[in-house]
Structures are given as structure tokens and as C-alpha cells.
Amino acid sequence: MQKGRGKKQAGLSLGVAALLIAFDQLSKSWIRANLIPGESFPESGFLRLTYVTNTGAVFGLPVNQTALIALTIVILIVIILLLYHYLYVATTLNVISAGLIFGGAAGNLIDRLRLGFVIDFIDIRLWGNFHWPAFNFADAAIVIGTFMLAYSLIRSELLGRACEHNRKIRD
């Protein structure tokens, strides 16, 4: 990979992450300033903004250990950075995917370190009183970035080449 191109790609990835962190934090600040915990706007409908404090893990799964979750997020960020640096397949899709994952993880880590919990507010009611657990833009970015990265790796045949390499080593 050329030095100039690598710097542009890193800049794009960090730019995506920075924009996501800013948008995520601004949206959570708006929720904190305009709703009280448990309040929804509108009060009914398919899509609501509901102020939820999440002391658990992803999508509200119960794990009440902020330090453990924060440490896990930091380790994942380091792994992403190492993969980005050493096993990097230079495509625009990978660069944007890494930015989304990194930015989402960082956005939620900021909440955990600053508040001790993550603010979730996107509340989708599927039918009746059944709804998907509330989430935020950082959560959505992590999920979307992960799917984009998986798609990109499958498309680039990197996983196939890695499996083929392992087969040759065993034979």
C-alpha cells in the first residue's frame, strides 16, 4: 500500500468516526436536555424517541459492570486498529466500515466513562407493545459497519485465501 493512499484512507476512516461521534453525542445531549428518563416522544406510534439509560451491554442485555464493558470496548478498538494496520485490505468500503465501527464504539465508550451508562433513545415498536430494545446511532453504526466489513471481506475473497492458506499448512 502506498504511503499517500494509506494516509488518505486513514483520514477517511477517522473522518467518518469523528462525524459519527459528534452526531451521536449531539443526539444524546438533545435527548438528555428534552426528555426525562422513560419519557417517549411521540407517546405512540411505530418510531419513538424514548430516553433509556442502558447500564447493560448491547441492546440492553443485562451486564451491570461498567468497568468490564468499558475495558471490552477498549480492547475491541485496539483489535480494530491492529487489524486495520496489519491485515488491511485497502478498499473504500473497508475504510468506511472501520470508521463506523470505531466511531460507534468510541461514542458509547464516551458515555460509559462520562456517565456510567449509555443513552439509548431510538425505540421501534413492531406491533402492539412488542418493540426492539432501544438503541442509539453508535449502536446502529457498529451493526451497519460490521455487516459492511463482513460483506467486503467476503467479496474481496480475503477469507477464502486465509482458509486456503490454512489448508496448505495442514497438508
Which value, in Å, is the CA radius of gyration? 19 Å
- Helix count from the secondary structure assignment: 5
Proportion of beta-strand residues: 5-15%
Distance between the termini: 31 Å
Low-confidence stretches: none
**Helix percentage range:** 55-70%
Largest sheet: 4 strands, antiparallel
Spell out the helices and strands N to C. HEEHHEEHH
Spatial strand arrangement across the major sheet: 1-2-3-4
Arithmetic mean of pLDDT? 81
**Number of E strands:** 4
The secondary structure category is alpha+beta
| Overall form | elongated
How does this structure look, described?
The protein has 171 residues and is α+β, with helices and mostly antiparallel strands. Helix content is 64%, strand content 13%. It has 5 helices and 4 strands; from the N terminus they run H-E-E-H-H-E-E-H-H. The chain has helices at 3-34, 66-86, 92-115, 137-156, 158-170; strands at residues 40-41, 47-54, 118-127, 130-131. A 4-stranded antiparallel beta sheet has the order 1-2-3-4. A hairpin with a 2-residue loop joins strand 3 (118-127) and strand 4. Helix 1 (3-34) runs parallel beside helix 3. The longest helix has 32 residues, at 3-34. The model has no long low-confidence stretch (mean pLDDT 81).
What would you say about this model in short?
A 4-stranded antiparallel sheet has the order 1-2-3-4.
Descriptive tags:
single chain, 171 residues, alpha+beta, 5 helices, elongated
